[in-house]
Amino acid sequence: MSSGAGHMIRYAIYTRQSVDKAEDFSSCEVQFMTCQEFARAMGEPGLHWTGQRFDDEGCSGATLDRPAMRRLRKVIDLGGIDRLYAVALDRLTRNMRDAVILFDELDKAGVELRLVHQPELSSGPETRFLRHILAAFAEFERDMIAARIAESRAYLKGHGRRLAGKVPYGYDADPVTRQLVPNAVEARRVRAIFARAARGQRPSRIAEEINALGWTTKAYTSRRSGQTSRGGPWTARQVLKTLRNPVYIGRFADGDTTRPGCHEGIVNPETFDAVQQMLDARRTTDRRQRTRRSALFRRKVVCPRCGRFLSTYQVNLTLGKGYGQVYNYYRCRSTAGGRPPCKGVQFGAYEVYAIVRDIMGDPDTWRTLLGTDATDAQVRAALKAWRVVPPALQYDFLRKCIARIELDETDGTASITFTPDAARPFLAGEA
What distance in Å separates the CA atoms of residue 305 and residue 345, rounded to the nearest whole number? Predict the structure, then answer.
């Protein structure tokens, strides 16, 4: 493109760096200033920067699907620039096919490409072949980098080394080798957490007790920025994650299995295995209780629109490899009487159970169950007995003694019809 007198050349600068760094003076900033100086050094009249930055920090060149690149391609398509600057071809892309696509878009829009380190690759048909060759080399270099990274990971795995990620609670990273070394204070606390779990305490209870002791999760210091993030209170999920982590017996998680590590374990393997067995058994029990609770009111919950009983069904949601969640519902699915199901009538099984549980905790419910002749002392005694009954017995009572549950769609309330003599076990002290 030639620039006559008074003709303005609108230009943009694209920069990219593979690793997102926290320094104020980033590699993208260096690239931008280099391109600015290169453009000004030409001394072309009418050269005008659009004022819009296109910086992709922490983005790979393997694809064009990058935030700044997407914005740049849209500006090019709309005819918003006349020239594009970049320090080198590999900053634009490291993929041969993407390079062809990008070059075609530039040519169709009449945008001239200027590369600081490869000035011979200006726009024009005579340089198309050379650009494609260099793009192929950029893709080859990317593949070589990926292969070297894979080889390095394989070597580290084969020698029991840590690959990457945050340092787990109980350990520090050696400043030279970056491998795990026990942190004396945290290691003692990890052993205490496992000891509590081995005695049968649930993760939620462990979290409550160690938070009461003032223990916090691990604090981290960024190697790039030097900023420290403080540890926070423990949650049941974090305790469970700690109890499931094989790093504490000198191993690393590796997909669905584990691999040996070269670091020192801080928990006895026998204790670790015992805790895993308890957690597995508890998970099976909890799953059975959830399934049991989901079918607790089968053919007892009434559709608020048609009066037919709601059906139970499950939805299995996969959250990731080895993880999932089961959701149980009551839904109007009946075709009894030749009528279609009521659309949109659906209640979560736990939601219904929570409503019933709240009703059972109301003294007026027990006054109704015990009859009008019941004294205040009898009502209090029955309510107290209900509260101390184990959950499994509560489920049995509700399943046998509730005849009908009518839900109100508007306010989320319910009315319960009990079977005759439903409160007899509590009057006789049999519950």
Answer: 8
| Nearest-5° Cα angle at 145, 142 to 148 | 150
Q: What is the pLDDT of residue 160?
A: 54
Q: Are residue 276 and residue 305 in the same domain, yes or no?
A: no
Q: What residues contact 382, with CB distance under 8 A and at least 6 apart?
A: 366, 369, 370, 423, 426, 427
Q: How far apart are alpha carbons 340 and 335 in whole angstroms? A: 5
* Residues 45 and 82 sit within 8 Å (Cβ to Cβ): no
In this prediction, residue 131 carries a pLDDT of 56
Q: Please report the sign of the dihedral spanned by the C-alpha atoms of residue 32, residue 34, residue 37, residue 41.
A: negative
pLDDT in tens, 410-421: 877 889 998 877
Q: Tell me if 55 sits within 8 A of 33, measured CB to CB.
A: no
Can you give the pTM of this predicted structure?
A: 0.38
Per the rule left: phi > 0, alpha: psi between -120 and 50, beta: everything else, 243 is alpha
Neighbour tally for 251: CB within 10 Å? 19
Domain assignment of residue 39, given as a range: 9-143
| HSE, side-chain direction, 13 A CA sphere, residue 387 | 11
Rounded to an integer, what distance in angstroms lies between the CA atom of residue 401 and that of residue 399? 6
Q: Are residues 356 and 412 in the same domain?
A: yes
Does one domain contain both 138 and 13? yes
- Per-residue confidence (pLDDT) for residue 2, from 0 to 100: 44
Radius of gyration of the chain from Cα atoms?
A: 34
Residue 66's CB is within 10 A of a number of other CB atoms, namely 22
